[in-house]
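User: Please predict the structure of the protein below. I'd like the answer in structure-token form so I can feed it into my own downstream comparison script.

Assistant: Understood. Taking the following sequence of 338 residues as input:
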Amino acid sequence: MRAETEAVAAARRRYEEAVRIVAALPVVESLAGAHVCVAGFTGQVGSAIVRILVEANRTTLAGRPVRVTGISRRPPAAPPADVEAVYLDVADPSAAASLDSFSHVFYAAGVTSDYLSRPADVIGSQLVGLQALLDRADPLCRFVYVSSARVYGRRTEDVALSEESEAIVTPMHLDNIYDSAKRLGESLCLWHAERRGVKATVVRAGNLYGLDAPGSATSVCELVRAAATTRQITLSGNPTSVRNYCCAVDLAQGLLLAAERGRAGRAFNIGSAEHLTTRELAESIAACFDEGVEIVEPADPVPASYQRLALDRAQSELGFAPQVRLGDVLPAVVAELA
């Protein structure tokens, strides 16, 4: 138990260190005195942005702090301090119209791996709510939309995906409830950039993990919860499928960089150099538990699919440099969720 506690403490320190590193980046100084909106501030992505901004207000921006407005459908168990929390549904036009104008908007609202049980929320957040906030955005507003690497579709070849890679999709497929909503959301950002001059950029995220959002429904969270409650991880897809895994703090770094340095109407892959098979992810999670966790693989798995992200554009144009690997913070993630 002592070794486990020390591992969790070390993982928390590593996460906190990553937050401090991002909060001290020169790009954060451009936010001095800004009014920032974080839509979906209680989720995995939004909570990481808020944590970095709060840290920056304490250090880098102490002289001219950022004013942070967070939007969420409902309050979290423990609302964060130093955030002007607004609880509304972004898909409600009358509610969105009541919001202030912002210098920066980070749009991280929406569902994740639970999209099949909440299709109406997918449409409401990724299309209706997104359009409502984009429509109200001043042309000087820097607007960053959190999209997903799933816009590329399920690839059967293990090749690196650049921002110019074409999507390969099956028109009639349940995945499109989420994936196509993200593609259309990106196109809305492009329309507002080209037709209205809004400084809208898009960030395509890999599979996320992080702290501060215990209610999050990312794939990593779902596997951790399954291991904690049943001592079993049942893999639904092909165990050899490959995904990119990105810490929420690194994604937040990419969002901040895209807001300041990204060209309007441009998309950026934001992830890590870490690509794991589904089996490798499950084994990493199982190793964080003292008690044995059984990994159950499907008897007749679907064909493997691959999500290998190329980060060249984000690195060269934004200066993006991921800080965290899954093993650095996974013990703390498991402790928070379990």
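That's the full token string. The domain at 2-210+247-273+308-324 is CATH 3.40.50.720 (Rossmann fold).
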